[in-house]
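Practice problem: predict the structure.
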Amino acid sequence: MHLSRVIHILGLLLMVQACTMLLPLPFCFYYASGDHTAFLLSAAITFVCGGIAYRFTRIDRDLLPKEGFAVVTFSWLALSAFGALPFVLSGAIPSYTDAFFETMSGLSTTGASILSDIEALPRGALFWRSLNHWIGGMGIIVLSLAILPFLGVGGMQLFKAEIPGPVVDKLTPRITETAKILWAVYFALTVAETILLMFGGMDLFDALCHTFGTMATGGFSTRNTSVAAYNSAYIEYVIIFFMLIAGANFSLHFHALRGQWRGYQRNREFHFYLSLIGVAFLVISASSTFRSGMYPDWEEAFRKTLFQVVSIITTTGYGTADYELWSFTAQFVLFSLMFIGGCAGSTGGGMKVMRIHLLVKFVFREITRLVHPRAVVPVRMGGHAVDRDVVANVLGFFVLFMLSFAGGVFIMSELGMDMPTSFGAVAATLGNVGPGLGAVGPTDNYADVPAAGKWVLSLLMLMGRLEIYTVIVLLSPATWQR
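Answer:
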């Protein structure tokens, strides 16, 4: 491990972040929110620190895989550390612990918030909060690969360390071209949703912020009651549609935009993704929303149920209903969806649909082998045998994920939180969902979590966003040996 190479790229990323801190300024001035000075000062501090790190280090050759892991992990920590400055300096979030938690939640697209009165925040701070979603959704490393060809050096190591899912899908032979394609699709969908939300009555500011939260599957809203504040069926259906898109593999969208729609038909993971949504919707409808009569007509019950199912499985976390008022069965189904997450290659969190699909196939393969011990039964996906190394990676990831969940629940309960809240908070942060259960449910927030707990949950957000392996590998002594 050569830390000078890692620090060199971190310095470059901090300078990029300093430039993004200037993007909220038009809203600061237009709404006269008074937080422009905080953004200018934060940008200056971040740029100077990044410039110093960049100036006094260098890269003399391609990055090693372990250096790629270090760059990705430390970049999320550094960007969260400096990204918290505008909140603190503007007074929007005076506590640095809370500001770091909110920034990590934004960049990791978790959407967990410590804010009790979101609408009281200055508009610049609100926009920065949502912009972090959008940048973190596709990934700051992938963004840098797209706009800074310099990072093409060792780019594949960074790409593998950051892109979610057990299989990395390169759309082109050149990694920088793949990054540009992903961001082009991401940007095009962002523009489309923003326009559609404005047709529904949102102004440009709210449309942008909610689009950032949707496409990044983050869930930060500009309203205290989230999307429910608009009381608009049109807006809810638009967001449902784009949450579905954001939770699917972006390579499918790229091929679809080129006229190759059959990719959706042939992709088994996408079919499994839609099947999970359908089954969850039917179970919740039958056990709670349709049967209880809590909604005046079937259309509203249909919409509220579908919205929450899609919001949770894609790990977006937007809310239009308090699902803690639903039946225990409905809450259990939603809690289970927090672990599954979106598809590989999406902006969603969780374990990913592809891994769950492979685990199911692996279990059925083992049952078949018990009945027919001599049979050679490979695990297949899309008609092709899956490499044993991929299956082993998925099994290892599942074990690490569950161990991280168990460890997180133990720590949070030791910090004085009740078990439902501990389970909900850990599942929601490790799965990058946002709202959980108990005291951190859809109508609550994380303000009352102890300071130590907020740092633990911030680490879980990072682990969930970077697929656990990327963070865990840095704990190995061999990683730090030259």
